[in-house]
Design a protein that fits this description.
With 268 residues, the protein is α/β, with parallel strands linked by helices. The chain has 8 helices and 11 strands. The protein has 2 domains: 3-110, no CATH class; 116-265, NAD(P)-binding Rossmann-like Domain (Rossmann fold, 3-Layer(aba) Sandwich). Helices cover 34% and strands 22% of the residues. The strands form 2 sheets. Strands 8-7-6-9-10-11 form a 6-stranded parallel beta sheet, with helices on both faces. Helix 4 packs across helix 8 (252-265).
């Protein structure tokens, strides 16, 4: 569950809110249909696009909170000179009061698990990447062969699994998973990549296979995987090194941002 939704559900137990949802979006707009924001009397959680659009939406939402039994309403915003926003599109926002009794319905409506990501490795970069992915629209499965390697405090969209041998988990991952391989051991990394390629050979249903490391590491892996019978075409399905081009830093947090951006580029 996204962290923003967790915060909304917790605060909703004590205070009413107005749920603001982008019902329609036409032309150039800051957020697409489905984007949402929960407005409480003392805070707003999440965003429908910021700027004057959001400022006016918050004001309208708080006016609803101050009224008795305010009915749902839909507001139309043209993002032109009148709002001081030059996007030029049109946004229709739906506003409705929600209370604690609506928690289950709100959760069902707004929960978006996102594309599946399987992260192999609980090292420094793995920890940094989980922190970044915790605020992004992904459903993350974090795997390691070692016991007691995962922190107790995890983002709501992350689940952990200790698997030994760790490569055995590859066969059970959801279809269209994005795999990021960065275990503590090059031998484990190699076995995970091999398991991914075998799955691709059988089902061709993994969206991305990314391996951390240098070009030299991947050259060594290529030779070893070729010796295991994998063709050049199969090896071309592996991305290594990982991370978008142009980010050269080697700090775990820098690598995490570059990898997260690469996963976002894959789209849904």
């Amino acid at each position: 569950m996204p962290r923003h939704l967790t915060d909304v559900l917790a605060h909703l137990q004590r205070h009413a809110a107005v749920l603001v949802t982008v019902a329609q979006a036409q032309g150039s707009v800051p957020r697409d249909a489905g984007a949402w924001m929960a407005v409480f009397s003392d805070r707003a959680i999440n965003t429908v696009g910021g700027g004057r659009l959001e400022q006016d939406a918050i004001a309208a939402a708080r006016a609803m909170l101050g009224a008795d039994n305010a009915p749902p309403q839909t507001l139309r915003f043209a993002l032109g000179p009148s709002l001081g926003q030059c996007c030029g599109g049109v946004v229709h926002l739906q506003l409705e009061v929600i209370r604690a009794a609506d928690s289950a319905a709100v959760q069902a409506r707004l929960r978006h698990s996102g594309p599946p990501v399987a992260l192999f490795g609980g090292g420094h970069v793995g920890h940094a990447l989980v922190r970044v992915l915790g605020d992004l629209p992904f459903s993350v499965q974090w795997l390691d062969s070692r016991d007691a390697i995962f922190p107790a405090d995890l983002p709501p969209n992350v689940v952990c699994e200790q698997s030994d041998p760790v490569q055995s988990a590859v066969a059970h991952l959801p279809a269209q998973s994005r795999l990021v391989i960065m275990s503590f051991s090059h031998a484990e990394d190699l076995d995970i990549v091999a398991a991914c390629l075998l799955r691709q050979r059988a089902h061709a249903d993994l969206r991305f296979i990314g391996l951390i490391g240098s070009a030299t590491k991947w050259a060594t892996f290529r030779k070893r995987l070729q010796a295991r019978g994998f063709s050049d075409a199969e090896l071309a399905q592996v991305t290594s090194p990982i991370g978008i081009a142009g980010i050269a830093g080697k700090a775990p947090e820098v690598i995490a941002v570059a990898v997260a951006a690469q996963l976002l580029q894959l789209g849904e």
